[in-house]
Write a structure and sequence with these properties.
The complex is a heterodimer.
Chain A (H helix, E strand, L loop, with lengths): L6 H6 L2 E3 L3 E2 L3 H12 L43 E2 L9 E4 L17 E3 L12 E6 L5 E4 H4 L5 E8 L17 H5 L2 E10 H8 L7 E6 L6 E5 H6 L2 E6 L2 E2 L9 E3 L12 E7 L6 H6 L2 E2 L5 E3 L7 E6 L10 E10 L5 E7 L7 E2 L1 E2 L9 E9 L4 E9 L8 H8 L21 E4 L5 E4 L2
Parallel strand pairs in A: 6-15
Antiparallel strand pairs in A: 1-2, 3-4, 4-5, 6-7, 8-9, 9-12, 10-11, 10-15, 12-13, 12-14, 16-17, 18-19, 19-23, 20-21, 20-24, 22-23, 24-25, 25-26
Chain B lengths: L4 H12 L1 H7 L5 E2 L2 H4 L17 E2 L1 H11 L1 H4 L33 H11 L10 H14 L9 E2 L14 E3 L6
Antiparallel strand pairs in B: 2-3
Helix pairs in contact in B: 1-2, 4-7, 6-7
Classes of the chains: A alpha+beta, B mainly alpha.
Chain lengths: 438, 175
């Protein structure tokens, strides 16, 4: 990375869309020199480097290894933002700082969480999971017994149905990607397939739904179809290799890959097989969403195809014209991401972004796009497609169908749900990034 | 619809011993009697399945509400630090506040949620009669039942909520 790009090398890169977007294969073709130049937002063109020196940490042995590694104290400011820091009697949201992390896996300490009545402190030895209702044999499982079952691991995003809710505002709310889209994260989950346990309880032919319930103080409860249970539902015990974080449902949660976050019931203690959905508070009130004609969607289930740019984004200013990598995340509850396009001119022209392998279904996919910023105004957008053929609607299409608010809501408010349209970042001549509608 | 596979697994385990049981599944779940599940079995379905015996009236509920609920939900449920459980405007914009009167599709959800979750700081401390009474009070204040109507397992599911038919299943193919 010590080499700086040869000017001619850069000039040779092929433009694929207006306002400086370059061919996604530029990295590969031009080698490490160009890639190095595009890594961050601190690149200053042709600034001469200072003479290298030894620093104190290189001249003495370092610190003691800790049993459980902590990140560098230089990184302590990289945190989730809290909506209810004093634990008042209401819901608590903690949002992922997408602009301050990279890759596709959210570190456990930065995974978003929402708890509606605080995080319970559950003794794993006393926790029980009961499966009953329309089954042949009601059964109770301990964490210990579940740990002896065949396990599976899968990468899966979890996204709150209310993620991106400020985007329903009739005017763009000035906020970071963390505030706008921070209620989505992605992890590797390991646990027991629910179908394995249902094999042992047996399923009565009349059972069509399962009511899931948590061991939290609200006994949070959601209904989901038996069809999903037999497809890819999991009782997750591990998150990125370690036991679940408390806010993510320790010691066990339901994982319904691709489904609305709230349905992935945490602190899972009960699954009841029934003929009809329970019409629980969270499914018929909180997570049913009002449409412009006054009707409401219920049982939305899927988190539909979506993408947004994380780098750059508000708070990550560009430091002078030159080369940058535009990158962001894309995901779909319907499967793999098949394509992401990026625009630097507010949607007039689009170029195809590189998708970072591996491309996994119902998981975050990172996209990357080389960009030569000429220092003039730019509006950056991304648009994703999934393998089922769904595409992120444009804002005009989305608003025509789902509406916008009459008033500008609070940034932490939830005026509506399931926003999956585009996000636009305007870059001004100073390199500052603002949220706009385009 | 689904074959009761576990019965085969169980039979195999018995005849062939633990090796076969491992092949089919560990079978480490412990059978439990429905009576022993009862303390957790609090799901109420919209047709009233699961509603316990007992009952209560709006007048009974009014007293309990003032004592245990009004500090958060406001006097007579008109709203405080927590949402109003009485009243609600028209659903005339996508961000309209959703209330029991203008939005909830089923009366059974009122009973189910109060019984499992309220009062917020001491959930599952109310008796079933108290939950019926509070449900009756809230429904009566919203003019969804009469002031003298008692709520019980028979009457509650019959209360038709105004927005009952206001919902569209977004992805029916998933069911």
């Amino acid at each position: 990375m010590e080499t700086t790009p040869d000017k001619q090398d850069l000039e040779r890169l092929e433009a694929v869309a207006g306002n400086g977007l370059l061919d996604r294969r530029a990295f590969l073709r031009s080698g490490t020199a160009v890639a190095g130049a595009m890594m961050g937002y601190t690149f200053v063109r042709s600034a001469a480097a200072e003479r290298l020196a030894e620093e104190p940490w290189s001249l003495a042995p370092g610190g003691i290894s800790r049993p459980y590694e902590q990140r560098s104290h230089f990184e302590e400011k990289i945190v989730r933002t809290l909506s209810n820091p004093n634990g008042e009697p209401r819901t608590s949201h903690a949002r992922t700082p997408h602009h301050l992390v990279n890759g596709t896996i959210t570190p456990n300490g930065l995974h978003f969480t929402i708890v509606h009545s605080g995080t319970p402190d559950i003794d794993p030895d006393k926790h029980r999971l009961v499966i009953h209702g329309l089954v042949k044999r009601p059964l109770v499982f301990t964490l210990d017994s579940l740990s002896r079952y065949p396990m599976v691991s899968r990468f899966s995003f979890v996204e709150c149905g209310g993620n991106s809710a400020p985007m329903f505002s009739k005017e763009p709310i000035q906020a970071s990607v963390q505030a706008l889209h921070g209620l989505a994260s992605c992890a590797e989950w390991t646990g027991v397939k629910l179908s394995t346990l249902l094999d042992e309880t047996g399923i009565d032919a009349k059972a069509k739904w399962i009511v899931a319930e948590g061991a939290d103080s609200l006994a949070l409860s959601r209904s989901f179809p038996v069809k999903k249970a037999l497809d890819d539902a999991m009782i997750a015990l591990y998150q990125n290799g370690e036991r679940l974080m408390p806010g993510n449902g320790y010691p066990m949660r339901l994982l319904l890959p691709g489904y609305e976050g709230n349905m992935n019931v945490k602190f899972l203690r009960r699954l009841k097989l029934v003929e009809q959905p329970a019409m629980s508070y969270y499914e018929t009130r909180t997570y049913s969403q009002i449409l412009p004609n006054g009707k409401a969607f219920r049982f939305y289930f899927l988190q539909e195809v979506k993408s947004f740019i994380t780098h750059p984004s508000p708070g990550l200013a560009l430091r002078g014209p030159g080369f940058y990598e535009i990158s962001g995340i894309a995901y779909s509850g319907n499967g793999r991401i098949s394509k992401v396009t990026v625009s630097a001119d507010g949607g007039k022209s689009w170029g195809e972004a590189a998708l970072q392998a591996p491309l996994l279904p119902k998981a975050f996919t990172r996209f990357r796009m080389p960009w030569r910023w000429d220092g003039g105004p730019a509006v950056l957008q991304s648009r994703a497609w999934d393998e089922a053929g769904n595409v992120q609607p444009t804002r005009a299409q989305f608003v025509a169908e789902r509406g916008e608010t009459k008033e500008v809501p609070r940034v932490l408010g939830f005026p509506n749900q399931h926003y999956n349209s585009l996000t636009s970042w305007a870059v001004d001549a100073k390199g500052e990034v603002k949220h706009v509608y385009a | 619809m689904f074959m009761p596979k576990p019965l085969h697994a169980f039979a195999l385990a018995v005849t062939l011993g633990s090796g076969a049981a491992v092949a089919e599944g560990p079978n480490l779940g412990r059978p439990i009697d429905p009576a022993d599940i009862a303390p957790w079995d609090i799901s109420i379905l919209p047709d009233g399945t699961g509603l316990p015996p007992g009952g209560g009236t709006p007048a009974q509920g009014e007293r309990i509400f003032a004592q245990k609920c009004a500090m958060c939900h406001g006097e007579r449920g008109k709203g405080g630090v927590a949402a109003a459980v009485v009243g609600g405007g028209p659903i005339d914009r996508i961000e309209a506040p959703k209330t029991i009167a203008n939005f909830w599709g089923y009366s059974t959800t009122v009973f189910d949620f109060i019984r499992r979750a309220m009062p917020w700081q001491q959930p599952r401390t109310l008796t079933d009669n108290e939950v019926y009474a509070l449900t009756a009070f809230i429904l009566a204040e919203n003019k969804l039942i009469g002031q003298n109507d008692s709520m019980n397992a028979d009457t509650l599911p019959k209360v038709r909520m105004p927005n009952r038919d206001g919902f569209i299943i977004r992805f029916p193919d998933e069911i």
